[in-house]
Amino acid sequence: MSGLMSSLSLAARALDAQRAGLAVTGNNIANLNTEGYTRRSIQLAEGQAGAGGVDVLGTRARRDLLLDARVRQELPAEGRERAIAGALSIVQASVGDPGASLDAQLTSFFDSFASLAQDPTSTVARDGVMLQGRLLARSFNDIAARLDDSRRGADSQIRGAVDNINRLSTEVAALNQAINAANGGEVDGLRDRQVQALKELSALADISVLQRGDGGVDVSMGEGRAMVMGATVYALATVDTPPNGFAQLQVGGVTMTSEVARGELAGLLEVRDVLIPGYQARLDTIAFSVAQQVNTVHQGGTDLAGNAGGNFFATIGAPAGAAAAITLDAALAADSDLVAASQTGAPGDNGAAKLMANLRDARVVNGSATFSEGWGQLVYRVGSDAQTAIAQQKSRLEVVAQVEHLRDQVSGVSLDEESALLMRYQRAYEANARYFSAVDTMLATLLNMMGN
Amino acid sequence: MSGSRVLDAALRLRAALDSVAGALAWPDVTGLLMAESGLASALADLGSVRRVDPADRAAVAAELLQARAALARCRILGASASDATTLSLAAQGKAAGYNRAGATISRAAALRGGLKAAL
Predict the structure, then answer these.
(1) For residue B108, what pLDDT band results from cuts at 50, 70 and 90?
(2) Local confidence band at B95 (pLDDT 50, 70, 90 cut-offs)
């Protein structure tokens, strides 16, 4: 009888084990699309001595901490490029297409002087010059304002990213507390949320994660600035800084803006503090050159009353801020007779108007480019920066996806199968990689042969 | 080598590199192994090129530039794949090589055995 009872007991435990296995599998399937969910596997062990059969020890999340860490290494680079690409797409729209934005306005402005040269005393032609001058100044002002708006937009996004970082830091700290309080109990769900929060955090900033003995994590940023230590959060603060009121980042009263090198935050900082100011400086240089060159020629001419020409554009002291400041000279704006078309003052002379029209093709921007070319270079630079960021982001995103695929592919098999698969994968890569240097050299030779 | 054959070889090289990158991006061991022969063949053909027909220059140059971009993609994905694999194997104490029977062996043993283990 005891033999029968023992057999029934064995069978019952085996059924329990299978039922637990099915429940775990069902849970895995149900969470197939749950972001951050890690597949669970059931842990079985031989039954107690003498009892035989099988016992369910519990479930285990098949998590590879090292691959999670590798994903966290790639995400900040991807986040940085994504932020740059996103912000620059707005800047690209602001500057418009070559041939259809400021360069077209520059051409119209200088062409209006060519029209004036044909009839230097014509009031209509004089009004036309002033209209085109006003429109050109307004184009500069509008683009300068749009670039400034883009910079302020990046600043707002920085503040939003800081809020997100603090929210996620708080979540990580709360999870640390909960994992610690579980005291060795079931924490797989908490760990999934922890991994997900760290993943989101690493896309925002270049964080370092240190595993704690109790299963929690400590998180730091920049040059080791603590953000989360156990259950304590050290919030990242934004401090408005003159002259623009842009946010600088502080932790515990220490400014750490320059320490942020990767992640979405770093990309936004680069857009706000490096890229857009660079475009603004180029635009200001063009506007300053236009005002200076046009005023110089205008002052050398004579107006309709025979007086020496004055300023065409209001005086601008320095290149900085020139695009936002450029405007018609107040006196000239009120009287088109003040437009200097003549060089000598003789009736019918159109020397100044012709000189002005010739400025269209003069290489005066930094001594090497026409105004339109200077503008074209700026538009090209914005487009090139945006395309580089998009290509980099795509590449980083692919690496993140690759590591995640690799992790998913090996996480459902035994450790032996997993290592065999990884080794085959690595060997297969090495087989191809040995051709890479030869391909590289050959491509360089062929492209050189064709003059590329 | 005639112009169209150069273009054909350039196309095959780019396709082979794209296959390698694709197989690396979506870890696909079989695809990775199959891409090797295409890579070797395109490389051998292009290696014998001495001149390119002027009519084909633009098309060949465009393919070569795309091949260069695909190569860069392969290198980035390969470096990441190597890191991820090395990390995982190291965590299992198996960051070494394997012998003819498929059993894992230490790096020292792999090197002694003449295998050029790159781990």
Answers:
(1) very low
(2) low
- Report how far apart, in Å, the C-alpha atoms of A138 and of each of A291, A318, A328, A370 are: 13, 19, 10, 20
Which B residues, 96 through 115, put their C-beta within 8 Å of a C-beta on chain A?
97-98, 102, 104
pTM: 0.72
Indicate whether A380 pLDDT > 60. Answer: yes
A64 touches chain B (CB under 8 A): yes
Residue A404: inside a domain: no
In whole angstroms, what is the distance from residue B86 CA to residue B105 CA? 14
Q: Which residues contact B36 (CB under 8 A, 6 or more apart)?
A: A428, A431, A432, A435
Query: Given this model, what pLDDT does residue A232 score?
Result: 95
Q: Is B104 close to A419, i.e. CB distance below 8 A?
A: yes
Answer yes or no: do B82 and A426 touch at CB < 8 A: yes
Q: What are the residue boundaries of the structural domains of chain B, listed by start?
A: 3-112
Q: Is A209 helix (H, G, I), strand (E, B) or coil?
A: strand
Q: What is the ipTM of this complex?
A: 0.77
Residue range(s) defining the domain that contains residue A447: 413-452
Q: Indicate if A149 and A261 belong to the same structural domain.
A: yes
Residue A27 domain-assigned? yes
Domain shared by A151 and A251, yes or no: yes
CB B29 within 8 A of CB A421: yes
Total domains in chain A come to 3
Residue A68 resides in a domain: no
Q: Which two tokens stand for residue B96?
A: 């070494």
Q: Which residue of B has its CA nearest to A452?
A: B61
Q: Which helix (H) or strand (E) covers residue A248, if one does?
A: strand A246-251
